[in-house]
Amino acid sequence: MKSARIVKISFTVFGTLIIAQNLSFEICAVVGVLVFIGGVVINIALRKRKSAIPLILFSSALALGLMCVHYNLEVNDVKALNDSTHNVEARVIDEPEYTDEKVVYKMKAEILSDTDLSDFKFMVVSYADLGFSEFDKITAEMTFYDTGTENDYGENIYIRAYVSSESQPIIEQGNGGLYRYAIATRKAVRNTVSRYLNGDEGALVSSMLIGDRSGLSDSAYSAVRDSGISHITVVSGLHLSILSWVIITVFRRLFRSRRMAAFVTLPFIFGLMALVGFTPSAIRAGITCMICFCGNAFFKRAYPMNTLALAVLFQCILNPFSVCSISFLLTVFSTLGIILFEPKLRKRVIKLSICRFKWVRRLLLLSLVTISAQITTMPICIVRFGYVNPLAVVTNMLVSTFVTVAVCLAAFGVLLCLTGVFSYIGGFILLGAAFNARLVLTVAKVMSKIGFSQVYINERRMMILCALFTTAVAFYFLIKPRSRIKTVLLSAVLIMEIITILPSFILPTPITLTVYGTESGTAVLISDGGRNVLVGSADTSYLAKMIAEDIKNDGIDKLDLVVIPPKCDKFSKGATTLLRHIDTDRIMYNDERIDTMTLDGTERIGYANCDVELTDSLSLSVTNYGMILTVAKTQIIIPTEYVNLPKADIIIAPSEFIATTCDAKYVIMTGKKNETADKCAFLTMGGIDATVVSKGKNARITVTRSDYYIESENLY
Description:
The protein is α/β, with parallel strands linked by helices. It is built from 20 helices and 24 strands. Strand 21, helix 20 (673-685) and strand 22 form a beta-alpha-beta unit. Helix 12 (358-385) runs parallel beside helix 16. The radius of gyration is 27 Å and the shape is globular. The model has no long low-confidence stretch (mean pLDDT 77).
């Protein structure tokens, strides 16, 4: 019963916090009070009869209370800084993160002019290297802005800023305290790996050791992601369990004592968490490992479900917004699936007649961990990413041994190289790690090229079917008559799945806009409730054909509507090529050359200036200078010439059509990355978040009723 109580409290808090992310602060406060009152009333009504309902209600009230307190004390005042400019004294708290387009600095504010607010984290994003290093004290004029996304909430970062163009930052070197040793170790590991290993193999080894995947090429990371093994590039339970197992095995040999080995291993686990920057997934995995080793130290068995529940509860109490981190959600749900399903599946697999062959039995048992994890993470992948990886089980089976060997060899090789005395031996060991990393990348590239390696699920019907399938599997494997504890565990699984999927059905379906990278054209695919509309065109036949192939790769064989931009002389060749390579029901255009095309069964709509309501939440206005999309409350302008544009939330256009003084919150420019970098820097200094999508690189915008989220990466 104690085990069931811990599980119920932890996962009720966890699930309630997931739901609360979709509610306003005021609603959370009111619902929390009502739930608490309901728990008191039901507890009085039940008297001494046993029931889980009051405990669940009190746990939900606790979660909502934590959310309200944290929001009021940590979040509300920070988000109120939006659109304000202050003289800021802040300290860089971690290494700058470099990408191909921008540099990200994580800072902690110490003094803000005209306000008493201090000691909060924020992020400075710049398209130019500002010269800041970790632990530097920076004094500069900064303007704060709210991106509207919650990707950074798991790290207690609720707002971003940029350094004003007129400001000359004053930089003073500082001391980072004990954390500077973690940073120094991380740099030493990265430099050691890069010194002995080159290319994607070295980058993959670094990502498996310290979670730094910035060195991976776009093609390598796309292959890893598309094959369903991107979790190996993020330090989480897999990596910490491997390294902690190696450490405790060594100490058991040295001390001949399980208790002493467990105690000595604890600080090493904390050090590994610091080494990767205390990411939410690493914290969850680290707390879980530390609880397990504490149990071993006191000669008590650490039950996996209790351990996971305590780790989740502890992290939710520290930061209720941890549930905003997709890596944290995936690591929790995958661990939950392994705990719940793997033992049951193992018992059934061993009974199969085919398992009398030793190698068959090993392969099947090896696949059970991945299958178990996929059962519980599938709903999250569908809701958050819109796709699942059917071949991930096979891919993980193929690479699991290589990953384990690579992590062990890399850790041991780096350790020897850092000692200096055995650096030659360490170099040879690192070559062994690189060989295994190469095998992992080879498997990933082969599996990612298979046509059904990713199945995109954009319809709610498929989401419901996947959820029902997962629920049926849970009932089949977990429920037994007169088994109360397993009923509780099943309830936890069902609650987690319901609260993960339910918001996508209660709230309006988000509208997805995919911006395709071209040289100097603009093409945006709008997906809204099964309706697909392409606005714009490429500027060359080659890019138009590539866009058509990308659309088909998304599982879209036919478009409902294609809108060709006005004054499309420079886009005509691309537009005609595009219409030849993809089917559509209707086209809107004002170019005479399209009249000569043979498009059987396609309705043609010529226009000058017009307003069209595409769906209930999507309207299009065609003007002389371009097109204006109104998506829910978000206004998006797609200009086709250089003009003074009206105010908008997002502007999408070739860089030549965008002024450095445009009035927008976010700008997505198409063009060659090198040629548009300077304009990105100007826009950033002017308070506009900007990004470039070039050939082969796309951006995705998800628009909800009140907000929008932008992701820019190599989506294909």
